[in-house]
Amino acid sequence: MEQSANARMLTKLMFRLLPVQALLVAVDSLDGFVSSYFANNYVGVEVMSAVGMYSPLNVFITALALLLSGGTSILCGKFLGRNEEEKLQNVFSLNVLLTGAISFALAVIFIFLALFNLTGLFCPDETVRPLFNAYLIGQSLGLLPNMMTNQLPVFLSLENKDDRTLLSSIVYVISSLIFNILFVKVLHMGTFGLALATTVSNWIFLAVQAEYFLFKKAHLTLKLKKPDLSDVKEIVKTGYPGAASTAYQTIRGFIVNHLIAIYIGSIGITAYATVDNLLKVFWSIPMGMVTVSRLLISVSIGEEDRQTLSDIMRVMFKRFVPLMFVICALISLLAEPFTNLFFHNSFEPVYMMTLWGFRIMPFYMPFGIIVLHFICYGQASNKPVLVHLLSVLDGVICMSLYSLLLIKTYGINGIYIATILSSITSSIAIFVWSLLENQKIPQDMNEFMIIPDDIGYSIENRLDLTIRNITDVVSISKLVQNFCEKRGVDKRRSYLAGLSLEEMAGNVVEHGFSKDNKKHTVDVRVAYLEDEDDVILRIKDDCKAFNPEERSRIIDKNDMTKNMGLRMVYKIAEDIQYQYLLGLNVLTIRI
């Protein structure tokens, strides 16, 4: 019962964080949708070929952004779990500096290639290349804000400022629409105008996010003087496997584009790019799920919390995947209206190609959720073989092989079917990996994930409890005391451990539960460290932020009648650490 209660708290947290993270991912996708709409309706169908040719390059840029944001996110989660404040600050500074340097270098290279027409590798079609070059220059001017706005939301979440991310996302979408109307429809700036609308919107997007760190009292601050460069290696090492997954998508994009160009022609690239751009808007939901899970997985590993680590995957299988199947079914049912947004003549080949894309292709997304979650887990738990296996399979091998086999018979529909088969095959590969590692059929989620033995406390030395009301608080002290005594802890410390937990948990129920009308629970973990003969009490709740250490500082020391319980706990505890992580109060007491 306690495990399911912990999962319920985690589920509520994951779905609370999901909308902002999904919207953030959707921002770039919505811009692609807007660009597709204005390109097809106000510039010309052939322009979508140039946009489609740019897509693999955009995936490469995204891979670099994910290298930094993914590595940073995982490291920050671990540092939070371990309460390593200085390292957290250093990683923030390094991330900002690295992002700025890489994006500037890429912008210079891309503009040079476009100006001197050296982009044949990206766009072999000479008739489309002038359009591609103009689009590339316009996009390059916005590379810095594009990459930076993929980094700052991680830190805004750590600052509990997801509302700032939400605001910047809304401003971006509105800006994209306005500038596309201005540059494309009104000023007739063509392909360059499409890219410029994205660039200007990206700069506005960055301004709204960065303003908090520049002018507000942000906890995280940029240190320009001598940051510790040793963490650069850790950022790259940690973020590389996940970024490689996206980088493989670049290779996949080039292969698919060339197959379509050979067997179908530029009209096929137009249809595929149109479908892909709109589906990316919906793909933001799975990516938002993965972003939330990545940080929670990292925090769980930093805290060595095996239960939460496996519960994250349970929520993914039981909640995220079924939800995505429902969304995909709705997209498929709305295929015709979606197609009519871009093309209006149902007798044209591009219309039918696009229509079938919306009917078939969405169903790769539920399986993609599974694959990406295990890639994130592999990153955070140092399982590079798993990460690269899934990345190569889904990113290159399966998609390329299935596309080559099916495109000759089924045309563009073969590409759509190949996308689904690729994700299914990669999902099956996870089970095969687990089967081979366990050398048997896994019996539970811990075995399925092959969670390392050195993460967390053994079942024998751990007690998990859930508190829902004051009655539970009263009974918890004796349970904790008995747990400690059975593991050889002396009676005095066993009694103090139970008393400390009763006091601090009771404080949460009394003050935290009454702050709003929401239903709350307190997740309690008691662990015995056999080697150190210490008792660890961890209290986690989803109430409003409350730091007992700050309360202890403002207590009138001359009035010994106030907050006697809080005084007692701080007096008898060897160490007390408090953190407010992702909307959760986490209090750790060592007795």
Would you write up a description of this structure?
The chain has 591 residues and is of the alpha+beta class. It has two domains: 2-446, no CATH class; 459-590, 2-Layer Sandwich (Heat Shock Protein 90), CATH 3.30.565.10. It has 21 helices and five strands. A five-stranded antiparallel β-sheet has the order 1-2-3-5-4, with helices on both faces. A hairpin with a 4-residue loop joins strand 2 and strand 3. Helix 14 (365-380) packs antiparallel against helix 15 and helix 14 (365-380) packs across helix 16 (412-438). The longest helix has 42 residues, at 2-43. It is elongated, with a radius of gyration of 26 Å. It starts with a helix and ends with a strand. The relative contact order is 0.10. The model has no long low-confidence stretch (mean pLDDT 83).
Strands across the major sheet, in which order? 1-2-3-5-4
Count of discrete structural domains: 2
Average pLDDT over all residues? 83
Segments where pLDDT lies below 50 for 5+ residues?
none
> Biggest sheet: strands, sense, closure?
5 strands, antiparallel
Number of helices: 21
